Amino acid sequence: MVRPVPVYVVEPHHHALHHIYQAIGRKKLPFSKVLMVHFDAHPDLVLPPGLDPARCRDRDHVLDVVDIESWILPAALAGHLDRVLWVRSPWSDQLPDGDQQFLIGSRDGQARVTCPLPYFLSECMWTHQVDEGHELGLRVQTLDALLEAKPNDGGNAWQPEDRCFVLDIDLDFYSTQDPFAMVLSQSQMQLLRQLYHASFPDPTANPGLLEEAQAKRRAQLQHLKEQLQHHLPKAESSNRGPSIDTLNGLCHEVGPINNPQATSGVDLQADSSDSVKVCALGKPVDRDTDSGVDLRDDTVNSPVADAKVDPRLLDLCNDLTIRPPKGEPLEAKLIHDAGCTCDMDSQLPYHVSSRDEILALIKSTTRFLGRLNAKPALITIARSSLDGYCPPPDVDFVQERVLDALRELYGELNVSLDYDEPSAPGNLE
């Protein structure tokens, strides 16, 4: 008798880790050497700051410290995952395509990785060597590249025939928003990109240069955090990013969207001359012309008056007091979190897809998964709508179409819906 593939649908992505650990505990997944195939607009490969490496196999501790951007690597640190294939959205560029082989372990009591890519240096996660560690293989590719590759290209380590694999899908892979760009003006986001920008040496540089660059980055982030806390109100909650009420409130307008970085790389079989209509949730907030106030005008009632601080930060704080985040209280934590997502070289992916684009990407997904010639031991799906990364009006449509495609590919599924919050009103047709 063929058992149906278990599928767990969660809302915030890090809740998927609970079901992976549960499957390991029930021996539905092996304790080690698990491959994760990770469809997502974001890598989710940050190490949580509160993670104690000595407790990396303490399930309760790990689940308590992880968040949406930091839930995968703790499972690698514990030795459960030894391969991660990040299938990135066509419009995502946080990590370069290709293969990386590195160690994940502890150094001076902190969880660290030995991969010197800017993504890890920017998060202050890198170290030249670890005291104790596990080897981790990371491959980054788009669907197009994977479909064009030969079946055994890259070696058997990336083929699931001889190992158990977890299929993980974030629905924002198919349609992606930047929730911070939805509540801050374009000029505010541009100032954040300038303030939080950091340059890093080539990954092949001398370790001393890498250590120096990472130390500067750590000091930069701490300084910006302290200055924002000094000049702006402190956070009253621990919520990350805009609230769902704010995100849903931005869905009342409908208009054309301009996606300068939207190139899906799949044949959409659609007339490119047609305007894609989406809700206002799918385009950045532009409130830069709401007021003619000169941001350097000292007649404005503003908390900024510190000659030692970068004038751009003072401009930003002044502007935020005049034009606070749309629908959100002005808090230093929200602004710092937004700044940590961007610099002059990169920013969070932002591409609200048409229904044709979504369906084309889902079709490509099943084509690739079919080539693996293996069923996953477990499927986790994250809606990511309450945090605004997948457009709330579209999430039910995407979820149903993805589940339909997986049923067609794998047969019967045992689907568990592990979320309570209702989605924003959407049309499934």
Note down, in words, how this protein is organized.
Belongs to the UPF0489 family. Pfam families: UPF0489. This protein is α/β, with parallel strands linked by helices and 429 residues long. It folds into 2 domains: 242 residues, Arginase, Chain A (3-Layer(aba) Sandwich), CATH 3.40.800; 89 residues, no CATH class. Helix content is 31%, strand content 16%. The protein contains 13 helices and 11 strands. The strands form 2 sheets. Strands 5-4-6-3-2-7-10-1-11 form a 9-stranded mixed beta sheet, sandwiched between helices. The longest helix is centred in the middle third of the chain and has 25 residues. It is globular, with a radius of gyration of 22 Å. The two termini are 35 Å apart. 46% of the residues are buried. The C terminus is likely disordered.
Give, in spatial order, the strands making up the sheet with the most strands. Answer: 5-4-6-3-2-7-10-1-11
Number of domains: 2
The proportion of residues in beta strands is 15-25%
**Broad structural category:** alpha/beta
What's the oligomerization state?
single chain
The level of helicity is: 25-40%
The biggest sheet, with number of strands, parallel, antiparallel or mixed sense and barrel status, is:
9 strands, mixed
Shape field: globular
DSSP helix count?
13
Instruction: Work out the number of β strands.
Output: 11
- According to CATH, what is the topology of the largest domain? Arginase, Chain A
If you average the pLDDT, what whole number results? 85
Low-confidence runs: 252-307, 423-429
Distance between the termini: 35 Å
CATH architecture of the largest domain: 3-Layer(aba) Sandwich
Elements, N to C (H/E): EHEHHEEEHEHEHHHHEEHHHEHE
CATH class designation of the largest domain? Alpha Beta
What integer value in Å does the Rg equal? 22 Å
